[in-house]
């Protein structure tokens, strides 16, 4: 049955293949023919997830500038964040990977595991001077596959006017957070907002609470993890946080905050430019609260790494590597950081940056202590992340107690 | 007799109220689409100060998707009718030994979940390079149109008086000729209905557009809307403006071709 | 559709063998065969298409469900056969059984709601009144809109904090806080069912209205003469005569609802906490989000079996549907 059934794919493939040829001949197919004569490479392709119009334009500009130093033009394409990894896997299967590829840092190891990436030492690129966190996220089995020009993490954003009006101080502990959020809640406005949706983004926002309380992604069914989840449950139950957090993305959280419908939120510094553009919004940023005073805040390390995928042409890879090196050189890195309010990933550049942009000093400091998501679990991180966001959803909807939800999560995470 | 008109009028009023309730979401979509950007979080009941910025954004971001949808839907209509018309003719008028089996098969296709087809097509399309192509999407989208059109046209063609067809044969016309110059013109109404619905099926398709595209190269408006939601809530006016634009074909066809739409809806319609 | 002329397939036109036997039977047989081939050629393109896009995917899905796919597969092209492992994994997960239950609840809820409301509207529109026909055809709009559009609009309307539904309920003082339409586990399921009912009512109304029109008026007059009130005439005239059409509508409803994906994906994305995850969305998530095509295919096959269980009923009713 199996062998017989396996065969019919060939006629379908043959027929569809013919159609594809016809299509290609008539010029309807989206064949990625990037102009390079046999010898000299004049252009390379780059793929990332910066779909936002202005961000895309800024990155195009940067890639063009770096391409110039390598003597190539860069064809820059962006796909939505959620479809980047599926897209890369598809391209890997059809051997049509771009020459230069951006990945969110926790995705690097699993893509490297498929064999789709090339190690950077081959091109004489090393990680000297880079902060250790991002180097570990960019490495797989001891070899460096990707480098991020800048890194970031999450923090507590608050509306200064609302805090002043309610007479509430910036919370530093979970109890203070609960009290502050309750005191800031009004009809049509919530005290606090987070992204608790069923995606990796939801897991990313929960990590600072989990980690700072001594929780561990390798072992989710612990009292420490349950306490962290209980905090979110309490915030929703008391009405200080909308139940809609279950559906919000980080962008939605930002929009709620910007529209004055949330007094505090968890978000990243890359929102700074947009928040500054919002009229009549006076906002501040602070470290996320911890459960009890004296606990060390541990936040997840964010940042996108650039990689050189495995494709046939040695020359193209070499050019791509030169562009990658340019993106990660101190000057470009500093400019990028200033543009998006992120933190340069070379330690020396970061400290210079902290002096030049004092408002970012706090972020520079917290990024240094940030932990990578793949640091402990490596390629098994996605399963743990799935367990985490599923537990958050189950607990916030009231389907499970935090303890039960995390028990399920542990099972999800260890179930290969 | 004063009672009857009064009762009729009362029914009309009730009917209007019922229709208003049923169409409220459509009204709301239009209302939100006319709000200024960023204000969608506190939408008024009426668009007192209509603002077209949502449409400007929608056309800028999704204009290309609308064109893609149009191309794909037209392509699927052509493919569906092209495949279905001869088949329907054969099933309706030829005594084919396998005919009933084919009809049976077409009915069975209606129970096949789209996700199962998509699962398998993804692999097949990857192998032959039809992912992210117009042709691939047109062919996949026609999975709704072909069975529907065959069944609808077959029913219509069975109703054609035998004499008409026999007369044409006596005049020496071949089968293809008869189909083209006699059967199809006589079945015009059914053809329009079938074409209209296959167009709407493809225009509305979401599943195949979502699964068989991994880039934005061939992105119909349904996927455009899906990518819009969940990205930024303060652009809800643009999301709703895109939705309004995506609803235009359905609304236009309902008004302009009401007769055919009703015929399609009541033909044991496939959806 | 009114019952038109009964089907009258043409008599075979070409091999009029009556007076042409002189060439011998061989020539006639060849002509006959050519004729038969010519006829099949009309059917060939559509049949080939249906085989390629329905039969093969079904077969391929069965094969895939016995293979192990992972992210690596798409690079190496290797998907080793693993026997029943995918099925074991799928069937042993709580989520699968929850999704199965959700699928059943979603289908039953949607189909019942659509039918009852559809019938009520059909009965209402049967009275003749000014603008009746226009109103009735405008009613089709929700059914014609792309599901993504309907889903998006409802998602926005049902938002707990800013949605118009909760606002209307608050303004009418029906409740003080908001109903968590999309954020509570059971209310989210109710919400997607309501949205799906909204989408399906026009279709039900249209077909049932057609069925009502086919009931001869004199039967009602006779019932009236016998002193039957509206209830009695519905019970003894309308319902018995409408039953065949009702059967078609219900079975079609089940067959189409069981595989619904768009609405759920757009309105709730299967959440919160997987409360609106059906077999369709689960299969989508496994295949296209987690790249576990083997398990996605296995889940899809369960859905196929479920659909086919209804198919027998459907085919009986479907034959009637074609001739209505």
TrEMBL record, chain A:
<keyword id="KW-0732">Signal</keyword>
<comment type="similarity">
    <text>Belongs to the bacterial solute-binding protein 1 family.</text>
</comment>
<protein>
    <submittedName>
        <fullName>Sugar ABC transporter substrate-binding protein</fullName>
    </submittedName>
</protein>
<keyword id="KW-0813">Transport</keyword>
<feature type="signal peptide">
    <location>
        <begin position="1"/>
        <end position="31"/>
    </location>
</feature>
<dbReference type="InterPro" id="IPR006059">
    <property type="entry name" value="SBP"/>
</dbReference>
<dbReference type="Pfam" id="PF13416">
    <property type="entry name" value="SBP_bac_8"/>
</dbReference>
UniProtKB/TrEMBL annotation, chain B:
<protein>
    <submittedName>
        <fullName>Carbohydrate ABC transporter permease</fullName>
    </submittedName>
</protein>
<keyword id="KW-1003">Cell membrane</keyword>
<dbReference type="InterPro" id="IPR000515">
    <property type="entry name" value="MetI-like"/>
</dbReference>
<feature type="transmembrane region" description="Helical">
    <location>
        <begin position="9"/>
        <end position="30"/>
    </location>
</feature>
<keyword id="KW-0813">Transport</keyword>
<dbReference type="InterPro" id="IPR035906">
    <property type="entry name" value="MetI-like_sf"/>
</dbReference>
<keyword id="KW-1133">Transmembrane helix</keyword>
<feature type="transmembrane region" description="Helical">
    <location>
        <begin position="101"/>
        <end position="122"/>
    </location>
</feature>
<feature type="transmembrane region" description="Helical">
    <location>
        <begin position="236"/>
        <end position="257"/>
    </location>
</feature>
<dbReference type="InterPro" id="IPR050901">
    <property type="entry name" value="BP-dep_ABC_trans_perm"/>
</dbReference>
<feature type="transmembrane region" description="Helical">
    <location>
        <begin position="134"/>
        <end position="157"/>
    </location>
</feature>
<comment type="similarity">
    <text>Belongs to the binding-protein-dependent transport system permease family.</text>
</comment>
<dbReference type="Pfam" id="PF00528">
    <property type="entry name" value="BPD_transp_1"/>
</dbReference>
<feature type="transmembrane region" description="Helical">
    <location>
        <begin position="66"/>
        <end position="89"/>
    </location>
</feature>
<feature type="domain" description="ABC transmembrane type-1">
    <location>
        <begin position="66"/>
        <end position="257"/>
    </location>
</feature>
UniProtKB/TrEMBL annotation, chain C:
<dbReference type="Pfam" id="PF00528">
    <property type="entry name" value="BPD_transp_1"/>
</dbReference>
<dbReference type="InterPro" id="IPR035906">
    <property type="entry name" value="MetI-like_sf"/>
</dbReference>
<feature type="compositionally biased region" description="Basic and acidic residues">
    <location>
        <begin position="17"/>
        <end position="28"/>
    </location>
</feature>
<feature type="transmembrane region" description="Helical">
    <location>
        <begin position="137"/>
        <end position="158"/>
    </location>
</feature>
<keyword id="KW-1133">Transmembrane helix</keyword>
<protein>
    <submittedName>
        <fullName>Sugar ABC transporter permease</fullName>
    </submittedName>
</protein>
<feature type="transmembrane region" description="Helical">
    <location>
        <begin position="40"/>
        <end position="59"/>
    </location>
</feature>
<feature type="domain" description="ABC transmembrane type-1">
    <location>
        <begin position="100"/>
        <end position="314"/>
    </location>
</feature>
<comment type="similarity">
    <text>Belongs to the binding-protein-dependent transport system permease family.</text>
</comment>
<keyword id="KW-0812">Transmembrane</keyword>
<feature type="transmembrane region" description="Helical">
    <location>
        <begin position="178"/>
        <end position="199"/>
    </location>
</feature>
<dbReference type="InterPro" id="IPR000515">
    <property type="entry name" value="MetI-like"/>
</dbReference>
<feature type="compositionally biased region" description="Pro residues">
    <location>
        <begin position="1"/>
        <end position="12"/>
    </location>
</feature>
<keyword id="KW-0472">Membrane</keyword>
<feature type="transmembrane region" description="Helical">
    <location>
        <begin position="293"/>
        <end position="315"/>
    </location>
</feature>
């Amino acid at each position: 049955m199996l062998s017989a059934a396996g065969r019919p794919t060939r006629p379908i493939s043959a027929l569809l293949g013919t159609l594809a040829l016809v299509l290609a001949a008539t010029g309807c197919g989206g064949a990625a023919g990037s102009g390079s004569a046999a010898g000299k490479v004049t252009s390379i392709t780059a793929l990332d997830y910066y779909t936002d119009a202005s961000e895309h334009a800024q990155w195009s500009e940067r890639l063009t500038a770096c391409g110039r130093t390598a003597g190539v033009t860069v064809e820059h394409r962006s796909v939505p964040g959620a479809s980047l990894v599926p897209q890369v896997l598809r391209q890997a299967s059809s051997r049509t990977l771009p020459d230069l590829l951006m990945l969110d840092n926790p995705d690097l190891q699993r893509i490297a595991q498929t064999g789709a990436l090339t190690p950077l030492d081959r091109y004489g690129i090393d990680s000297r001077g880079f902060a250790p966190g991002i180097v570990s996220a960019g490495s797989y089995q001891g070899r460096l596959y990707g480098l991020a020009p800048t890194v970031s993490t999450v923090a507590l954003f608050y509306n200064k006017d609302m805090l002043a009006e309610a007479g509430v101080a910036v919370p530093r502990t979970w109890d203070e957070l609960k009290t502050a959020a309750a005191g800031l809640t009004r009809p049509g406005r919530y005290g606090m907002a987070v992204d608790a949706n069923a995606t990796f983004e939801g897991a990313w926002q929960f990590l600072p609470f989990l980690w700072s309380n001594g929780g561990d992604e390798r072992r989710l069914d612990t009292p420490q993890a349950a306490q962290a989840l209980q905090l979110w449950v309490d915030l929703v139950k008391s009405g200080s946080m909308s139940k809609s957090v279950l559906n919000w993305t980080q962008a939605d959280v930002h929009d709620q905050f910007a529209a004055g419908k949330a007094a505090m939120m968890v978000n990243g510094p890359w929102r700074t430019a947009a928040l500054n553009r919002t009229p009549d919004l006076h906002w501040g940023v602070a470290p996320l609260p911890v459960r009890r005073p004296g606990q060390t805040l541990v936040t997840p390390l964010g940042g996108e790494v650039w990689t050189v995928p495995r494709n046939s042409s040695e020359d193209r890879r070499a050019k791509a590597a030169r562009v990658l090196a340019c993106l990660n050189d101190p000057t470009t890195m500093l400019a990028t950081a200033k543009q998006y309010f992120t933190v340069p990933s070379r330690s020396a550049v970061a400290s210079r940056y902290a002096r030049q942009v004092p408002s970012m000093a706090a972020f520079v400091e917290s990024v240094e202590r940030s932990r990578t998501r793949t640091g402990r679990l490596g390629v098994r991180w996605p399963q743990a992340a799935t367990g985490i966001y599923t537990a958050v959803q189950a607990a916030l909807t009231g389907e499970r107690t935090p303890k039960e939800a995390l028990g399920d999560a542990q099972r999800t995470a260890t179930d290969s | 007799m004063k009672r009857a008109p009064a009762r009729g009028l009362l029914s009309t009023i009730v009917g209007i109220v019922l229709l208003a309730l049923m169409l409220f979401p459509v009204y709301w979509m239009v209302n939100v689409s006319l709000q200024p950007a960023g204000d969608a979080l506190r939408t008024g009941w009426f668009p007192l100060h209509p603002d077209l910025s949502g449409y400007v954004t929608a056309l800028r971001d999704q204009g290309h998707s609308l064109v893609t949808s149009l191309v794909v839907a037209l392509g699927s209509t052509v493919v569906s009718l092209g495949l279905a018309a001869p088949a329907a003719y054969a099933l309706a008028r030829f005594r084919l030994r396998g005919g009933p089996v084919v009809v049976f098969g077409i009915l069975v296709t209606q129970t096949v979940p789209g996700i199962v087809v998509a699962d398998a097509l993804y692999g097949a399309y990857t192998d032959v390079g039809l992912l992210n192509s117009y042709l691939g999407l047109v062919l996949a989208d026609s999975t709704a149109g072909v069975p529907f059109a065959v069944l609808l046209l077959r029913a219509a063609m069975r109703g054609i008086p035998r004499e008409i067809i026999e007369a044409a044969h006596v005049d020496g016309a071949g089968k293809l000729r008869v189909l083209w110059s006699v059967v199809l013109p006589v079945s015009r109404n059914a053809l329009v209905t079938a074409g209209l619905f296959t167009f709407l099926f493809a225009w509305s398709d979401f599943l195949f557009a979502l699964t068989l595209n991994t880039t934005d190269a061939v992105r119909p408006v349904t996927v455009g809307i899906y990518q819009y939601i969940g990205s930024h809530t303060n652009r809800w006016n643009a999301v709703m403006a895109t939705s309004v634009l995506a609803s235009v074909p359905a609304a236009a066809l309902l008004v302009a071709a009401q007769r055919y739409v009703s015929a399609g809806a009541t033909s044991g319609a496939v959806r | 559709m009114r019952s038109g002329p009964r089907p009258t397939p043409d008599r075979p036109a070409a091999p009029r063998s009556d007076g042409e036997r002189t060439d011998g039977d061989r020539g006639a047989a060849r002509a006959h065969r050519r004729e038969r081939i010519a006829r099949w050629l009309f059917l060939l393109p559509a049949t080939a298409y249906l085989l390629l896009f329905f039969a093969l995917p079904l077969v391929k899905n069965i094969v895939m469900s016995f293979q192990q796919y992972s992210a690596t597969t798409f690079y190496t092209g290797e998907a080793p056969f693993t026997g029943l492992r995918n099925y074991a994994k799928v069937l042993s997960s709580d989520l699968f059984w929850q999704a199965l239950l959700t699928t059943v609840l979603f289908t039953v809820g949607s189909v019942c709601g659509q039918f009852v409301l559809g019938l009520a509207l059909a009965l209402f529109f049967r009275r003749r009144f000014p603008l009746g026909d226009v109103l009735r055809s405008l009613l089709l709009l929700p059914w014609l809109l792309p599901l993504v559009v309907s889903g998006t609009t409802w998602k926005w309307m049902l938002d707990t904090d800013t949605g118009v539904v909760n606002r209307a309920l608050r303004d009418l003082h029906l409740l003080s806080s908001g109903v968590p339409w999309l954020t509570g586990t059971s209310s989210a399921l109710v919400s997607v069912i309501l949205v799906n009912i909204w989408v399906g009512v026009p279709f039900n109304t249209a077909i049932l209205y057609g069925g009502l029109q086919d009931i001869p008026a004199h039967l009602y007059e006779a019932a009236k003469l016998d002193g039957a009130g509206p209830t009695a005439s519905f019970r003894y005239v309308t319902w018995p005569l409408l039953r065949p059409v009702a059967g078609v509508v219900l079975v079609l409803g089940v067959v189409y609802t069981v595989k619904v994906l768009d609405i759920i994906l757009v309105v709730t994305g299967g959440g919160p906490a997987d409360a609106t995850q059906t077999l369709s969305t689960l299969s989508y998530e496994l295949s296209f989000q987690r790249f576990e095509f083997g398990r996605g295919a296995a889940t899809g096959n369960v859905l196929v079996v479920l659909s086919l269980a209804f198919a027998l009923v459907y085919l009986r009713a479907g034959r009637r549907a074609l001739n209505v």
